[in-house]
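Priority: medium. Attachment 1 of 2:
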């Protein structure tokens, strides 16, 4: 029953990876150069891994909604993701990294809280 909850550290690593990739493609150096990250392009393998991880992350969050424990965390994770996406779609490119960083920090905090919650329930 708690096994899906114990996957939280795996998704915490994914969130950290997203922050690193986000800084690489949207970072201050890219902004100073005036580079558009859509023109830089990800490598095919990186894009595949990122897309697959996002798919599994969303599936995992939706699965958590059906468990008796962790529903609140899952609802907040989904809510933060949707609100962050909506904000990123409406802001300028310079603010995308700020929103991604803040969004990632919130999700990492929730994932840490969820993992500690699951660990204590064992």
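Attachment 2 of 2:
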């Amino acid at each position: 029953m708690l096994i899906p909850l114990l996957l939280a550290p795996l998704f915490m690593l994914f969130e950290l990876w997203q922050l690193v990739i986000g800084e690489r493609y949207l970072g201050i150096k890219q902004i100073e150069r005036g580079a558009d990250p859509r023109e830089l392009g990800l490598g095919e393998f990186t894009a595949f891994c990122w897309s697959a991880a996002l798919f599994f992350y969303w599936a995992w969050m939706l699965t958590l909604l059906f468990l008796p424990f962790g529903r609140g965390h899952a609802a907040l994770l989904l809510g933060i993701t949707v609100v962050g996406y909506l904000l990123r779609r409406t802001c300028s490119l310079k603010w995308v990294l700020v929103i991604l960083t803040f969004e990632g920090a919130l999700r990492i905090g929730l994932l840490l809280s969820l993992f500690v919650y699951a660990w204590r329930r064992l």
